[in-house]
Fold these 2 entries.
Entry 1:
Amino acid sequence: MLLAFDWTQLAQQIVIGLASGGVWATLAVALVLIYRSTGVVNFAQGEMAMFSTFIAWSLVDHGLSYWAAFLLTVAISFVGGVAIERAVIRPVERAPVLTVVIVTLGLFFLVNGAARWLWSPETRSLPNAFSTRPIDVAGVAFSIQDLGTIGVSLGAVALLWAFFRFTKLGLASRAAAVNPDASRLLGVRVSWMLALGWGLAAALGAVSGMLTAPALASFDQNLMQPVLLYAFAGAVLGGLDSPFGAVVGTLLLGVLINLVGTYVDWVGTSLRLPFALAVILGVLLVRPEGLFGHASARRV
Amino acid sequence: MRRRALGIGLWLLLAALVLTVYVIAPRFVSDFHSRDLAQAGVFFIAIVGLNILTGYTGQISLGHGALMAVGGYTTAALAVHEHWRDVWTIPLAGLAAGIVGFLIGLPALRLSGIYLALATFAFAVAMPSLLRKFSGLTGGGQGLRLLEQAPLQVTGLSGTVTIFGHSLTQNHFLYYLTWAIGLVGFVIAWLILRGRLGRTFRAVRDSEVAAASAGVDLARAKTLAFAISGVYAGVAGALLAIQDEIVNPLSFSFLLSILLLVGAVVGGLGSLPGMVVGAFFVQYLPDLSTRVSSAPGVPDFVYGAAIIIVMILLPSGVGGLLGRLAEPLTTRLYTRP
């Protein structure tokens, strides 16, 4: 029985899982960014990423190369994210958290509608950024695309980490998230730090969208909705306030979903998502703050 | 003493007004549109239930669409498999969803805030796939079609329903049925919330630590709020199944859960009368948005913009506005001289 077990297949499924998890990781980190600075989960994150992907598609359609369009889209998305924060989030900054959550749900419909309005609802496709040629390592087939996707995704997250860790602006925005009042006294413009957070999250979401789209034969305006769900699940698993946790959480989730879908017949493809969600719920019951999150304590 | 009499008089007047509107409303809209009103009633019931949980107990739920699914499928399954008359399944649908709500409340004891919102959201997302998987009971992706599979159990199949000697069209019947249950549910919610249990709920919402140190059993209060809220959602789901004469996984997608929360927040968390506005907002806004322009994407764009604008203008919902408008009156009536 044990001898008959196909270890190559297992390794192969783990690789596939890591590749999909790697794409979700960028969106999950975008969610964590906004959650850490405002305590709000941004339900429109996926739709914002979808909108960015359509901008990239337009740029490619006008003759730009994939990577030129990629960089330009990241920049445009950053500005767009800042603009969204200034226009619709700032007016409800002092409102209850749930009000802000509802605003992001409104943003979900608004951005999705805008994308279908500006770009007709037919399906389209983006060129592959990397070669899809498989590389064979001991019977496990990697494609360059898989590796490239994970590389770009984790590279973007690492870049962001470096920004927060090593720059003065990064330090200021961390300070604004931890203690807004004290930061304000020290001259940090807290409100603009929130806008910066939204801009960075939008840029990161754009990366996630532009990595998701080429892997699909075709995509439409619903491109990022499943990705958002997986990103949520992965971020919660890792701990909503930990970017590192979000990366580990989504990678774990990607592998878990693939393995369960492959090896547990009863689950198959149809129950993959519910099963993954049930596992996460199980984890949360043991560690309510996620694997790498911090339990919040409050003095009363 | 006179002040108290005045207060009671005003309440009676308000109740009479609400009842009059309830009885005569269908005369002012076409038969077809009274079905829309009936559907608004479904949202009303579910949103009142959600408000007990989220608005008064402080537990965010993004999974109430799934609880409605439990109610709707209970009704449909009883009618199709067990040949129950559709309207008599409503209490059982409420009970079933209440039990499921209680069960969701158990893991919810460990979670709070956004984590609870996302956990309940996961429940809402998973529900359609679960419904497809257990196809023996639920009919899978096809769902259960009452009109074809259990025509004898559908009330008003012949086009009219006779109640107390009055003959009503089916749409009018659905309107009166839904809003009658809605009004009763409203009064029950009001009675629950004004009493000891309501104070317990509010204490949990305002500070769990303070409530616990004052002797409130947090676990009991939270699971009870989930269960009560589940009963409302289940009854709403049953009524939706009766109105549509069909249930399938698509009728209870996670979008429904989102809409319910939008309705509750727009209506104003912690305000019961505001829920009427919330229900009408959820029911009629998509239709109004389509009327602006039906070009692809535009209705969703308008819909999203409307939600954002309402939230910016009324951060505490319509209920907060109503409270402020009524303040001069309520302070005069309820403060001691």
Entry 2:
Amino acid sequence: MSKKKARGVPQINAGSMADIAFLLLIFFIVATTMDVDSGILTKLPPMPEENQPEPPEINDRNVLTVLVNAKDQLLVEGTWTDITSLRETTKEFITNPQGKTSLPESPTKAVVSLQNDRGTSYNTYIQVQNELKAAYNEVRNEVSRNKFGKNFDELTADKQKEIQAMYPVKISEAEPKNIGGN
Amino acid sequence: MSRFKKKISGGTPAISTASLPDIVFMLLFFFMVTTTIRDASLKVKIVTPNATEMQKLEKKSLVSYIYVGPPSTTALRETFGTEPRIQLNDAYASINDLAEFVEKERESRDESEASKLTTSLKIDKDTKMGLVTDIKQELRKVNALKINYSTKQGKLASGS
């Protein structure tokens, strides 16, 4: 009797701990999805309030009109354009390097107006959005390299804000029309 | 001399496996931390369009998903047709359910974080803009303005 008491609590065998851990490990390996969701971030404009004052008229030279029809064709400033040249057109529109009178007075006033048909495919819409965004990103990168010798992404938050203020992304999306049927 | 003899006859010593549980636990914790368990099974087929100017979504817990695409299996196509449909959580939904969905998503988060909620739109690339625009209008009505068009990294492919 006295012998049993002296022994105290018996040791628990930890040999199967590895097995249990393996079991859990395999479960989590199988259940894991490592993909990070990424995409084009945008902000929608808030719903217009009732009896809101009319928005101010924007000078025609400060607007780049991009229309996309139901057949996924592009009309930029009244001329039929291919998607591949949209980026260059937008970049020229934002910066206006030659100081043309048909292009905006300053980048802060430049507005891209995008209108699509209800029959436009989502793929084309994303491509147009992507090209517009790419144009702005390229312009910002060029400016920040000239000014600070670095790409826009590598700048500090203050300097990024400075460039953002110089080249604000203004993409206005008009209410869609239903011209092309469907 | 006898000492040397003993060593030779001993053979290869057994490797101690006592640290095996530690190693396994380390891996286990790594996977537990990185895991996000898929919470919705997709009932729509989605091939997201390609894009190059992408940003990563910062906080996964602050993202709610809206899926749009044609029904994924033939059985579903027989009942629901081939037109693109909206999926919220685990079921098909109509455009009118969106407001309620956003409201519920907001309630399930902290009040301070509810304003940072991003809506990720996972939309099949063959969807027509009419439906997408309706969704956007609906989101504007409930003031869920931060949205993300989910895309794949890649060259732009023209056409569909």
